[in-house]
Amino acid sequence: MKLIVLAGNIQKKLNFLNHAISSRSQLPILGNILLETKGDTLILSATDLEIGIEVSIPAQVETQGATTVPAKLFTELINSLPEEKISLEVKNEALEISSKKTKSVLQTQHRDEFPALYEEKGVEVLRLKTDALRANLGMVVFAASIEATRPALSGVLMRKTPQGFLFVATDGYRLSLKTNVQTEEASHAFEKEMLVPARVIREALTLKESGDIGIFVSEHNNQIIFSQDDIILVGRLIEAQFPTYEKLIPTDISAKATFDREEMLKAVKTCAIFARETANVIKLSLQKEKVVVTAKTPSLGENTVEVEATLTGEENEIAFNARFLLDVLGNIDSSEMSFEMTGPLNPGVFRIAGDSTFLHLIMPIRT
Q1: Which sequence spans correspond to the domains of the chain?
Q2: pTM of the shown model
Q3: What is the DSSP letter of 238?
Q4: How confident is the model at residue 230 (pLDDT cuts 50, 70, 90)?
């Protein structure tokens, strides 16, 4: 393999590529990056077997080939070079990296030891503008569990409905639901629901802001692939039964408060300081023209913040984990939100004012 490429073009891709490198893997080859050429393109790949990332970079290829190099060393070396043309050449099982004034030699491992990221993309089942992907999945994915002990809760359910796509995630203590998501036309009719690892979606949300993202499914390999221009992100669909979440959503309410999201977020942040020593408990008291946010630690003190609100129904109060409140208020891009409840021991529901396609449910804490 021999080629010339701009170091700056590789540098732009390495940070994202390294998201798929695991330092704790039992397989040493997974600490490497695969370099291979196809036509006039240099392709870099990395995987930790949970996710895989492939990036393509234009290059002047003289000799086709492939090899793997240690990810950390390669990244540090490339990032130390000026943004100029460099030469990459495999000689005697080593990779020579040369610029105008430097020459480095890295030991390689044969590409045959490196696992294939995917065999085929499969069929395109969904296509979204990047901003639409962030807006819709960004308000759902944070509710998925980060624990691997219950696989069904570590993913986001995607389902086609007559009104559009539905996305839902839950960790057993809270639930985010977004419905009626309109998409660009896909090349294949989407019929089956998918349970997509939340980690894959979180990585997809970091893709560049412009352009479309195509979502492909390979049923043969049970893989989902996010594709945007010169980047491919690969994950394995979760084979587990997602909870019957519909039964958790309250059908009636006794109180509803509408408030400014930013003002409520600041209030919860302030009270969260006092909640750290008492299991992170924050109390919301719904009153006639306000919501009173309170946190109390007997050994330290207490904090109370009033947030202007419009109340419909009965005055009431309820307690939540502060982190859950910060997550929902911080991941929603809306000026006005509402909170609905039926009692202090029933789930509370947050909604975007004037938007019936989103809800976020949180289980209360008994005080």
Answers
A1: 2-113, 124-245, 250-362
A2: 0.91
A3: -
A4: very high
Angle between the 322-331 and 261-275 helix axes, to the nearest 10 degrees?
150
Architecture in CATH for domain 2-113: Roll (3.10)
At residue 251's C-alpha, the angle toward residues 248 and 252, to 5°, is 130
pLDDT one-digit tens code per residue, 315-325: 999 999 999 99
**Helix 71-80 with 7-17: angle, nearest 10 deg:** 140
Measure the CA–CA gap between 209 and 96, rounded to whole angstroms. 34
Check if 2-113 and 250-362 are the same fold.
yes
Q: Which among 71, 65, 45, 181 has a CA at the least distance from the CA of 126?
A: 181
Rg of the Cα atoms in the chain: 25
Domain 250-362, CATH number (from 2.30.29.30, 3.10.150.10, 1.10.10.10, 3.40.50.150):
3.10.150.10
Q: What is the architecture of the domain spanning 124-245?
A: Roll (3.10)
Summarised one tens digit per residue, pLDDT across range 149-200 is 899 999 999 998 888 899 999 999 999 999 999 887 665 666 779 999 999 9
Is residue 164 within 8 A of residue 349, CB to CB? The reply is no
Q: Which has the closest alpha carbon to 164: 187, 178, 188, 180?
A: 180
